[in-house]
């Protein structure tokens, strides 16, 4: 069994850096019946399609040399922005009373970004977290992960 319970009416977010699926449980904690509340998909092409192809250069005043700036990972920045958008949606739903409880399933990095952006009220609604990427898995796999951990 998982370490947390997703009761009737609870929300479940299954997300990653590009896709967010919000479900609501219409069953109970043992026999889940997840139904889609909202789906979000972010168009996030690879970095080479989003930004410049060469990093800038910097010059220092104390030496004649110059050094290259680190490449900006536009793809990574967009994934972080999308995680913030998922957290914003949870914050809004918690504030409005739209949700009383939520379980969050996301890869570790996305889960950390979401957790960091949740308001205190939204954090109090989180009944559990699962650090897995299940966004492309069938619903039965998601339900199984929630009932068996």
UniProtKB/TrEMBL annotation:
Residues 58-72 have a biased composition (Polar residues). Residues 42-56 have a biased composition (Basic and acidic residues). Residues 42-72 are annotated as: Disordered. It comes from the Bacteria. Pfam families: baeRF_family12. InterPro entries: BaeRF_family12. This is Host attachment protein.
